[in-house]
Amino acid sequence: MSFQNPVFIPGPTNMPEALRKACDMPTIDHRSPLFGQILHPAREGVRKILKSDSAEIFIFPSTGTGGWETALTNTLSAGDKVLAARNGMFSHRWIDMCQRHGLKVEVVETPWGEGLPADRYEEILTADTGHEIKVVLATHNETATGVKSDIAAVRRALDAAGHPALLFVDGVSSIASMDFRFDEWGVDVAVTGSQKGFMLPAGLAIVGFSAKAMQATGTGTLPRTFFDVHDMAKGYANNAYPYTPAVGLLNGLNDACAMLLGEGLDNVFARHHRIAEGVRAAVRAWGLDLCARSPEVYSDTVSAIRTPEGFNATDIVTLAAEKYGVAYGTGLGEVAGKVFRIGHLGSLTDVMALSGIATAEMVMADLGLDIQLGSGVAAAQDVYRSPQPTHSRAAA
Ligand SMILES: Cc1ncc(COP(=O)(O)O)c(C=O)c1O
């Protein structure tokens, strides 16, 4: 079996060869200054990518889900109230985690395909005069629906209400691919993982804590052991972890940050935007719709594409894998069978994206959908042929 084809799942992403090699390194003593030379620059690189001067960066051997748990268990106590909107599978899972930890969640049910309702957040926060709500959850990029939300607007909602709740942002499928402004947006905890924008294998939960979130670690009483940020901070002070770190992945993370910062964050974001625009042009040419309801919420990392009524979108994913050896994302939860997803993040170029668009066309035509072969490719080519800076080829 050949693994030559790129993947078009919304993470784990395609990996640059240099990062694969960076993860594959000889064993070193993980309690030594040598380890510190990997760990500390990796944390500093993440801080820069979050656009923060002062966030405390913690990196656990885990995944994004462990990052959610780190955020909650280090700052909250059972019975605390959390405000969250459910607009897709990942916001749903974070809400579910809160409930399993005994937190009370005020859930704003939001149509899948729409962004976070900042206005509704403001009304609820304004009405919460007793400041019972301790945390507001915000999923920056709903990977299930291909919807990005306006985190600055959520911050404005908190400020307009004069509410002191902490702002926790899931940036698992946005950070390092789409603009993220930890300090400017007043984010208190940001969560991501290694396998999306950082272009690495899964295995690291990456979180940033603001000073205010660090303060909350002193009052929250939820049980925490593996994800205790204080144990982790003590370890870091001695060039170590409280347990055995994933050294190779951290080495990869260090190099990934250098690669992204070397390309330039604005260039990384522009590359993702252009590639996404090509995919969206293809979707229009196919006569299909995105799950995302309007251009201001279009995600630059993943497009969830609605298929015609009565057609099982999962068939596209299955046939693409079986016949062409190409991976797309299936629909999840409420949109299972109704959408398929093209992931377009991480180590990707225009030319790689064209192969994903072309294969999707072949599969849809094979399955009898009324798709003109070449229509989506031509529409994307128009986007990709427009003048583009030479950095567009940097990250593959
Ligand atoms: C937005 C979002 N949040 C959280 C997660 C969970 O992350 P993980 O699968 O790394 O635990 C994902 C995974 O795809 C995601 O896309």
Automatic annotation (TrEMBL):
<feature type="domain" description="Aminotransferase class V">
    <location>
        <begin position="30"/>
        <end position="331"/>
    </location>
</feature>
<feature type="modified residue" description="N6-(pyridoxal phosphate)lysine">
    <location>
        <position position="196"/>
    </location>
</feature>
<dbReference type="InterPro" id="IPR020578">
    <property type="entry name" value="Aminotrans_V_PyrdxlP_BS"/>
</dbReference>
<dbReference type="InterPro" id="IPR015421">
    <property type="entry name" value="PyrdxlP-dep_Trfase_major"/>
</dbReference>
<keyword id="KW-0663">Pyridoxal phosphate</keyword>
<keyword id="KW-0032">Aminotransferase</keyword>
<protein>
    <submittedName>
        <fullName>Serine-glyoxylate aminotransferase apoenzyme</fullName>
    </submittedName>
</protein>
<dbReference type="GO" id="GO:0019265">
    <property type="term" value="P:glycine biosynthetic process, by transamination of glyoxylate"/>
</dbReference>
<dbReference type="InterPro" id="IPR015422">
    <property type="entry name" value="PyrdxlP-dep_Trfase_small"/>
</dbReference>
<dbReference type="InterPro" id="IPR015424">
    <property type="entry name" value="PyrdxlP-dep_Trfase"/>
</dbReference>
<dbReference type="InterPro" id="IPR024169">
    <property type="entry name" value="SP_NH2Trfase/AEP_transaminase"/>
</dbReference>
<dbReference type="GO" id="GO:0008453">
    <property type="term" value="F:alanine-glyoxylate transaminase activity"/>
</dbReference>
<feature type="binding site">
    <location>
        <position position="341"/>
    </location>
    <ligand>
        <name>substrate</name>
    </ligand>
</feature>
<dbReference type="GO" id="GO:0004760">
    <property type="term" value="F:L-serine-pyruvate transaminase activity"/>
</dbReference>
<dbReference type="Pfam" id="PF00266">
    <property type="entry name" value="Aminotran_5"/>
</dbReference>
<comment type="similarity">
    <text>Belongs to the class-V pyridoxal-phosphate-dependent aminotransferase family.</text>
</comment>
<keyword id="KW-0808">Transferase</keyword>
<dbReference type="InterPro" id="IPR000192">
    <property type="entry name" value="Aminotrans_V_dom"/>
</dbReference>
<dbReference type="InterPro" id="IPR054863">
    <property type="entry name" value="AspGlyoxATase"/>
</dbReference>
